[in-house]
Design goal:
Blueprint: H1 3-16, H2 21-46, H3 50-56
């Protein structure tokens, strides 16, 4: 790891009250994992499944609700 990143992690640890650099890295990795999951859900949501639309269609538009 570069000295710049190590200094940043140490500064962040002190500023935010974390107990160790490992805890800071763990929090950062969890945030990256959440971001990846969010992007995967967004991609899945954007996929059009016309067969499913026919299955769940009840003749009512969203505006009816």
């Amino acid at each position: 790891m570069s000295p710049t990143l190590t200094r940043f992690i140490e500064h962040y640890k002190i500023a935010k009250g974390y107990k160790s650099r490992s805890e800071v890295i763990s929090v950062a990795l969890n945030l990256l994992q959440e971001k990846e999951l969010f992007e995967a859900y967004r991609e899945a949501d954007s996929e059009v499944d016309e067969e499913w639309d026919v299955t769940i269609g009840d003749g009512l538009s969203d505006e009816t609700w």
